[in-house]
């Protein structure tokens, strides 16, 4: 499995993927890390691991599709077969999705469909749920709406604040994302289109 990882920030999920590859629990190669933010710490993590990095400033492109076309070009050049959004804070368009059908994966810090969008941990905390978690899913044209691959639960504990909850969820993310990528590496993913009017689902073989 040849991965292209897209990041905008600290890149701790990227780090978890790097570590899993190094440890041999994820049979993949990270061919390139792309960021829309030149100062993203994720780029330093990639460089430290000897992974090529590319910065594409979204502000330099006329629209989302033009930016995505540039991203696709970089990913194709590097032979990427699966794209991982690991804290990539841009909405992606059909330009990216059509280039990698069923092979764009996102990690989201809630149990979808609860709390989509930004600051899912703060949304969950504010709502007062007792259990939240994280979701790894295939990306479709909606925001955090694609077929779910895996979820892990995380309790909200007495005395938590948003920061503590965020950290507890992040730990789970770091386990779940490399595990799901390994399923993909093993070819165990099957997207099942349900009956008319139902959502496509994923079967793990
Ligand atoms: C994670 O919480 C991820 O679920 C969300 O953005 C955050 C990225 O964190 N999409 P990091 O950059 O991997 O540390």
UniProtKB/TrEMBL annotation:
GO MF annotation list: phosphoribosylglycinamide formyltransferase activity
InterPro entries membership: Formyl_transf_N, Formyl_transf_N_sf, GART
Residues that bind (6R)-10-formyltetrahydrofolate: 64, 89-92, 106
Biological process according to GO: 'de novo' IMP biosynthetic process
Site (Raises pKa of active site His) residue list: 144
Pathway the protein contributes to: Purine metabolism; IMP biosynthesis via de novo pathway; N(2)-formyl-N(1)-(5-phospho-D-ribosyl)glycinamide from N(1)-(5-phospho-D-ribosyl)glycinamide (10-formyl THF route): step 1/1
Matching Pfam families: Formyl_trans_N
KW Ion transport (keyword) present: no
Superkingdom of the organism of origin: Bacteria
Record keywords: Purine biosynthesis, Transferase
Keyword Nucleotide-binding found: no
GO cellular component: cytosol
Active site per the UniProt annotation: 108
Coiled-coil annotated spans: none
E.C. numbers: 2.1.2.2
Domain Formyl transferase N-terminal: 5-181
Catalytic reaction equation(s): N(1)-(5-phospho-beta-D-ribosyl)glycinamide + (6R)-10-formyltetrahydrofolate = N(2)-formyl-N(1)-(5-phospho-beta-D-ribosyl)glycinamide + (6S)-5,6,7,8-tetrahydrofolate + H(+)
Family from the record: Belongs to the GART family.
The protein's name in its UniProt record: Phosphoribosylglycinamide formyltransferase
